Amino acid sequence: MNRLWLSTYFPQTFTLAATLLLTSCSGNWGWYVVSPRTSTGRTNLLFLLDGLQWTVLMSITAISISVILGLLIALPGLSKQRALLISNRTYVELVRAVPILVLILWVYYGLPQIAEISISVFWAGVIALAVSDSAFQAEIFRAGVQSINRGQYEAAQSLSLSYMDTMRFVILPQAIKRILPALGNQLVYMLKMSSLVSVIGMQELTRRANELVVTEYRPLEIYTVLILEYLALILIVSAGVRWLERRMRADERV
Fold first, then answer.
1. How many whole angstroms separate alpha carbon 121 and alpha carbon 197?
2. SS3 201
3. What pLDDT is attached to residue 14?
């Protein structure tokens, strides 16, 4: 019953509530600034939505890099060599200890001075988000690989597969199915944390909302629309992850 309500009535209820919220105007509420019924409201809504592409592009780029980087960092954590284990734990603990906002500021303002390079706002945000998330991805991959039954390794050895081939063809395909929900959670996390890149001037959703608040002086109405934008975006991503999970489970039954 709950699933039926969520799939059938929730989207309709959400759309109706958002429409009523944005088109109503009473008392001290000034929904006209974001109302699709007025020319000013339509202009402001388009201005806010223009930041959506940068939020999505930055998040997808960062999560793609962090997955690859996290996997490379996780592999030493699976080794029996003490030096590799120490390097893995050192990286994970150090990166996880740094607040992501501080890392964004350091990459944008500090990295160009250290490396003597010029870096755009977009890539500063991507690098900071990817590095911060890679530590969490490493732990997710490590837990996923360690959850695979030891017999899978022994079966691969009996086929004379190398360590890399064992990981590539036997272990990782099984581990990814198990850690997919966690990877989906990290993508949602990345979408939300991308809002912090607004502090260095990235023209994503939050930055656009902040600029509109300065010109319209209607923070409540504008930030409400911003919440609805993130809510809709994250609901779509969550639905896509759940669909992918069902597809993988269906493939296992075939």
1. 8
2. coil
3. 54
User: In 3D, which of 91, 69, 95, 102 has the Cα closest to residue 193?
Assistant: 102
Quick one: pLDDT at residue 165? 82
Q: What angle do CA 209, 190, 134 make, to 5 degrees?
A: 145
- Cα gap 156→231, rounded to integer Å: 44
DSSP E strand boundaries for the chain? none
Q: How many CB atoms lie within 10 A of CB 65?
A: 18
Domain 54-202 is of which CATH architecture? Orthogonal Bundle (1.10)
Please state the separation of Cα 65 from the chain's center in Å.
12
Note the pLDDT tens digit of each residue in 85-112: 999 999 999 999 999 999 999 999 999 9
Residue pLDDT, tens place only, 30-80: 788 988 888 988 999 999 999 999 999 999 999 999 999 999 999 888 888
CB-based contacts of 129: which residues, under 8 Å, 6+ apart?
Answer: 58, 59, 62, 66, 100, 104, 190, 193, 194, 197
CB of 61 closer than 8 Å to CB of 125:
no
Whole-structure pTM value: 0.83
Query: For the chain, what is the radius of gyration of the CA atoms?
Result: 22
